[in-house]
Amino acid sequence: xxxxxxxxxxxxxxxxxxxxxxxxxxxxxxxxxxxxxxxxxxxxxxxxxxxxxxxxxxxxxxxxxxxxxxxxxxxxxxxxxxxxxxxxxxxxxxxxxxxxxxxxxxxxxxxxxxxxxxxxxxxxxxxxxxxxxxxxxxxxxxxxxxxxxxxxxxxxxxxxxxxxxxxxxxxxxxxxxxx
Length: 179
Hints:
Layout: E1 18-24, H1 29-38, E2 42-44, E3 47-53, E4 58-64, E5 69-74, H2 79-83, E6 88-91, H3 103-115, E7 131-134, E8 143-149, E9 153-159, E10 164-169, E11 175-177
Antiparallel strand pairs: 1-5, 1-6, 2-5, 3-4, 7-8, 7-11, 8-9, 9-10
């Protein structure tokens, strides 16, 4: 009796463009972004702004939210074009499966980047482990779990298909408990 062949998932589609995470060489995300844009590929690189103070000047720098990751919205026809781009190492796969990232998770990344400022927090009535939802600001509607209460609140927004969790500081007046 022959062993059954293992079937792997591949979310690439011939007509519908879908989001995928691409693994890049370290500190080459911006170069990959530029090269893919030049090839006509829809690409998203979430960048955070930081102010760096040097001896004689202050500079604002933009660094990737997730090191070595960039996101592309492609069809099957664009797959090889992306892989052949300089500094691209591979597509991010989960147990050898090429899984697309839902549009809503890319939107969450865009909203997180747009939030900009982190807020200080006063005494709270929440406990670690509480399920909470943001009820104000650009991140309204996002749900997560409170993971730290030591003078400040942090909630975890789990992006399951990315395999990452984002830790975001949120003011207590912008939170409500989720049943």
